[in-house]
Amino acid sequence: MNRLLSTSILFTLFILLSGCTLNSNVAQLYKQEPNLDAEITLDDSISTKEEQTIEILLTKDGNPVDQVDNIHVEIWKQDGSIPTIHKIPDNRGNGKYQLTTSFSSEGLYFIKAHIKHQDSEIIPKQQFIVGELSDNDLEYLQKDIPEQERSHDHHH
Amino acid sequence: MLSSKNRQQKQKQASNYKLFWRWHFYAGLIISPFLLILAITGSIYLFKPQIEQIIYQDYYEVTPEGDRIPPSQLMEKVKNEYPNAVITAYRPGEDATRSSEFHITMDDQSSTIFIDPYSGKSLGKLNNEDRIMDKIEEFHGELMAGTLGDRIVELAACWAIILIVTGLYMWFPRNKLRISGVLVPRLTSKKRILRRDLHVVPAFWITAGMLFLILTGLPWSGFWGTNFQTVTTNLGNGYPPSVWVGNAPTSQIETKDIAEVPWAAETLDVPKSDIQGRVPVSIDDIVAIADREGVHSSYTLYLPQENTGVYTLSAFPPKAQDEITMHIDQYSGKVLADYRYDNYGSIGKVVAWGITLHKGTQFGFINQLISLFICIGIVFVALSGLYLWWKRKPDDGLGAPKAPPIYSMKLFFILIIGLGLTFPLVGLSIIFVYLIDRFVIRKISKLRNFFHA
Question: Which domain holds residue B272?
């Protein structure tokens, strides 16, 4: 009897202490989503003087995607001072989609691509700077920093 | 020869009966207060939808007028009104007359801001701590005592299974099948018999319902439930990860590609290359994705709180089949995971149904009524059991039946060991009781007499 009891005590403790953890790749046992990615490339520094070529590299599971159901690019300025630009980029093959545009005023811009391929839709979004930022842009970028943490350097 | 064999069998039966009785007796005495609490809080919580609809009517109801204001603008309003708050979630509202909600944390407190999506007017703020139904839920799930309370509730639920098993054994008619005293109480008999029947007969009738509530409640318990969910998820049969156990996926965007927030005070000091890069898509885009993907309208949208976080859409509406958990990359709007009821493993589906049935939402009002009936039954049986004991107990002790040691009856012993292994907390508690009995009660004669050890 005592042996039986002590065995069950040990077994119970074992179960208690070995508390289960989730396997790291457990998600693979369940429904998977298509892996569509887009990388938007712009020059590091953009000026109002020259035309800018923007390239989007579209891949699915790392392989280039040449056939899209829909691709459309939206570019707008943070302060809303120019109308939104809508463009459909050209398919250059090998997953590359290109467009050229020029910017007439300096400041903070956003680009968002709307891409639909088979069952998946993505809307990658980036921000970029043309020329220099305005004070209004800086204020916008810092608006989510809590008040007390914001730097007060400009007082001196 | 035959009669002596018969007598032996009778004796064995009687001693088995006492063994079951003793376990039922002690388990009942200790567990019944908790069963009462669970049944009473449970029957109130069942009606949460109706109760909250009444007490929070001013927060919930809006009159549709014109177009809805985009959530990003509503969020700006909330930010302006509560500048120190962190907004954690947004809930658009399941129909046209339901207000929108923003969940915030501020000064270590979680609250909900209700807002009219047509006028943008704030309808007020409710601290989660002050919500009566949250209190009841906390009482039901953890006796308002955190982890310790959770374990006690779990223990009580598991021990209730032992009560059911031992109770059924004693209920089962030993001599010949009869109806009165088994399926119908003997109302005309002596008081002693009536008291017994008023416990035994209703207990039999609610047994199935009680067992159902216990088994459907256990998967959400903190210890057994979490382990159970982990095991089934690992096996591929349970909920997909992050629905119950496991974290949401993280954004696949590399940190270096993410736009940084400039700390400089002058525009000239801003390092441009850090500022350029991926930025989160707006909450309006995510709401559009939710509509496109047909997410149940009662969803809550959890906002990413860090760079690598994701937007999570989650809806646990009344019916299990409508459940959804969806994770969306904050920088690309890419759906990283889309788990609906159909994507649950077979055990996950059963557990999901169990939960909505347990909460009384799956079949609406009739579901609530049936559950309420079971709860009232549990209250009645717990009370009639206690009354039965009170009336029978001698003045100088608990009145527990003296019984042979547990291992004298193999089947029962195996059953208890089995339960102890399936529910390790029960196993631990049995070991604890055994040790107390062996080393304390049996050593002190006063205690020995009191407990009839």
Answer: 240-343
